[in-house]
Write a structure and sequence with these properties.
The chain is mainly beta and 74 residues long. It is 9% helix and 54% strand. The chain is globular.
Length: 74
């Protein structure tokens, strides 16, 4: 699955399903890509921000939880 900025993904931590929203994807000077993500708590509020190697994050992801909200409207 291709990871994209602004999308909330879900995966498993032990036996719990958790959600993480991708904030930034960057390539470090070593050439390794990293993802900055925010844990989304059960009540919908934001938790801690963390960095993970893109390959590890892609392995963790089981599916898309939520697409970004469209702003604007009428």
């Amino acid at each position: 699955m291709q990871i994209k900025k602004g999308i909330t993904y879900w995966g498993m931590e032990g036996k719990r399903q958790v959600e993480r929203r991708v904030n930034i994807i960057e390539t470090r000077s070593s050439g390794t890509k990293y993802v900055n993500w925010t844990h989304i708590k059960k009540d919908g509020s934001e938790g801690k921000h963390r960095w993970t190697a893109l390959r590890k994050f892609e392995t963790w992801v089981k599916g898309i939880y939520e697409l970004p909200q469209e702003s604007g409207g009428k």
